[in-house]
Amino acid sequence: MKLGHAMATGAVVAAGVAAFLTVPTATATATHHGYEPVLNPADFVKVIDNPYFPLPVGRTLVYRGIKDGRSQIDRVHVTSRTRKIEGITATTVTDVSTHRGKLLEKTTDWYAQDKHGTVWYLGENTAAFLPGGKIDRSGSWLAGVKDAEPGIIMKAHPAVPQAYRQEFMKGNAEDTAWIVNRGGKLTTPARTFRHVLTSLEFTRLEPKVIDQKIYGRGVGIISEQAVRGPKEVATLVRVIH
Which helix (H) or strand (E) holds 128? Predict the structure, then answer.
């Protein structure tokens, strides 16, 4: 996998994703903010086994990287807990970030997979622990609350150049993603992955930042880095079953 290719396309993708922000997805109907996915709880399944975003209960993914100028360890754990969100039973995933044992951020995310294989993102509760004991909870949202809408975290059949919203709460959570490449391989400390999937992510709330994510089959995110904006990188180092 040549990461430089994705970096070179960053400006083009940023413009494309920015334009996409005004266009509803195929599963949406027009409303006052132009995005209103219609989801039927009966169309969802219990197990999340999308090849590029599987969430088997009990799995923990460990990442090492750099954020805000500090080394960071991220532990993403798929719990056995579920939560009903707009009638859909969602899987609860925790994400804990630390720096030399000090808690930096703790997030709880909720995902669910429809019967076609697409994984939907239904909300997150995030807390960033700042100096002086302050806690920043901005970015938290829940589908159906304060006009927040669910988004897609991974398509059933991702292909270039699909683009989609990952979340939507106006002014608070507006991440979008664009599939830019399929194929190639990437070696991480965990192992070598083949047939990887690469996406770029953008939000109009941070117009100078573009993130690249690489997904490995059977695991999910194996690498993440900012290709525009402040240095940020995370690499999968261990998979705990």
Answer: strand 119-129
What is the number of other CB atoms lying within 10 angstroms of the CB of residue 209? 16
Q: What is the mean pLDDT for each group of 10 consecutive residues in the chain (241 residues)? A: 38 46 40 80 98 98 95 98 98 97 96 98 96 92 97 98 97 97 97 98 96 98 97 97 89
CB-based contact 196:215 (threshold 8 Å): yes
Q: Residue 54: which of 191, 222, 180, 207 has the closest Cα?
A: 222
Beta strands in 115-207 (DSSP E): 119-129, 135-136, 141-142, 149-154, 163-165, 167-168, 176-182, 185-187, 192-194, 197-202
Give the max Cα distance, the chain: 47
- Map out the domains of the chain with their CATH numbers: 3-240 (2.40.360)
Run of H or E residues at 3 = helix 3-8
Structure tokens at 21: 């922000």
Q: Which residue reads 């997979």 in tokens?
A: 113
Give this prediction's pTM.
0.87
Q: What is the model's pLDDT at position 7?
A: 38
